[in-house]
Amino acid sequence: MKKRILSMILAATMVFALALTGCGSNDSGNSDSGSGSDGGSEEKAESNGKKVGVAMPTQSSERWIKDGENMKKQLEALGYEVDLQYAEDDIQAQTSQLETMIAQQVDCLVIASIDSEALVNVLDQAKEANIPVIAYDRLLMSTDAVSYYASFDNEGVGRKIGEYIEEKAGLASATEPQTIEFFMGSPDDNNAVLLHKGVMSVLQKYLDNGTLVCKSGRTSFEDTCILRWSQETAQQNCENFLTGFYAEDDLDIACSAFDGFAYGIKAALEGAGYKVGTKWPLITGQDAEVMAVKNIIEGSQTQTIFKDTGLLAEKCVTMVQAVLEGTEPEINDTETYDNGVKVVPSYLCEPVSLDKDNYKELVIESGYYTEADIENAE
Ligand code: BGC
After folding, report:
1. Nearest Cα residue to 56 out of 35, 83, 87, 29
2. Average pLDDT, stretch 289-308?
3. If you ran DSSP here, which 8-state letter would residue 99 be given?
4. Residue 234 in contact with residue 205, Cβ under 8 Å?
5. What pairing do the DSSP bridges indicate for beta strands 346-349 and 146-152?
6. How far is the CA of 189 from the centre of ligand 1 (A)?
7. Ligand 1 shell residues, CB under 6 Å
8. Is 235 left (phi over 0), alpha (psi -120 to 50) or beta?
9. I need a surface site. Which of 52, 258, 276, 369 has the fewest CB within 10 A?
10. Order of strands, edge to edge, in the sheet holding 81-86?
11. Which of 183, 323, 165 is nearest to 261 (CA)?
């Protein structure tokens, strides 16, 4: 059932993407490997030389690079050997990487999927080979081969984006309608569906009462999702919205689910003659990428969601230890993440809204970034 809904959404997105942009997905195609296995396991008794395969979706977005580095560092510190692989958003490449890890008899798999429905067969192979699987950040759908799930509160991410817009645009007491367009995540990523749900739990009432006006009429997830979280598609969609619906009125709010989208939206706005500091819209994002923080300081992006990937890796590592050493992982949700076959025991980290007023406290004082990281971002 879920599978059917997802394929319907996928088909609808493709039609939408084609209609709007004249092109479909934006796979970069390459499969690239991160680093191999150089962990000195001898002196670390805990791990008994066990090997963990970590499959990450892409290096095209900064967060996944940080995720991979954190997982590798933390697992190696416990003495595990780590095989870290990136698949550059190519589903077939990720499947092959997992098949190789299974053939090499890794002891555990940690997977941040590209398409959460596409790995069912390879996950069956892992199960047959008695290799436990942990879903990282993105839920693995339609499989009973997954033991645990470490992520952020994904509906909470959407709610925080919605609440930020509600507060900063003064929606509760607005006397004039404001225009808004939506740029939502990939239809094959369960996180994207939940994020949209969270956004609408706050903003739907303002669309219903006319405080928010979406001139393109595209507010549903099916109509606003962007396959593979493509920055280029977000830019093209925004360009099409601006020429098609905003020739006379300005766009006031771009509700974007990802920093990458915010960069595309910024480029589209600049192309249409918008200027930071005059009629620039409120633009949201997700991931607190270093470039996004720089843009927030400069004013070309308004907000993002900070997700501490070091903390996520910590929680995920407790799950690896649980399946390999028989310890108890930290779990704080046993109800929300139903993948269509089972409810996967989860740990959900707390997402935090970041803007120019709190970025220093969140990412500089915490040591997440240095001032120089932000200055040098490009
Ligand atoms: C993650 C987000 C990320 C997006 C695009 C989602 O699954 O939860 O943090 O922005 O993928 O990479």
Report:
1. 87
2. 98
3. H
4. no
5. parallel
6. 8
7. 61, 63, 137-138, 185, 189, 191, 229, 258, 286-287, 307
8. alpha
9. 276
10. 32-33, 81-86, 51-56, 108-111, 133-136, 146-152, 346-349
11. 183
What's the pLDDT score for residue 17? 41
Q: Could you give phi then psi for residue 170, rounded to 5 degrees?
A: 60, 40
H/E stretch holding 70 reads helix 62-77
Rounded (10°) angle between helices 231-245 and 259-271:
40
Alpha carbons 265 and 285: distance in angstroms, whole number: 11
CA distance 217 to 226: 16
pLDDT at 46 (0 to 100) = 59
To test the pocket of ligand 1, the residue of 62, 286, 309 to mutate (highest count of ligand atoms within 8 Å of its CB) is 286
* Per-residue pLDDT tens digits for 176-222: 999 999 999 999 999 999 999 999 999 999 999 999 999 999 999 99
**272 is written with which tokens?**
């249409």
Q: How far is the CA of 262 from the centre of ligand 1 (A)?
A: 13
Sign of CA dihedral 238, 244, 248, 252: negative
pLDDT in tens, 103-151: 999 999 999 999 999 999 999 999 999 999 999 999 999 999 999 999 9
Burial of residue 13 (CB within 10 Å: 0-12, 13-18, 19+) is: buried
Q: Which of 31-40, 50-59, 87-96, 103-112 has the lowest mean pLDDT?
A: 31-40
pLDDT at 287: 98
Residue nearest to atom 6 of ligand 1 (CA): 191
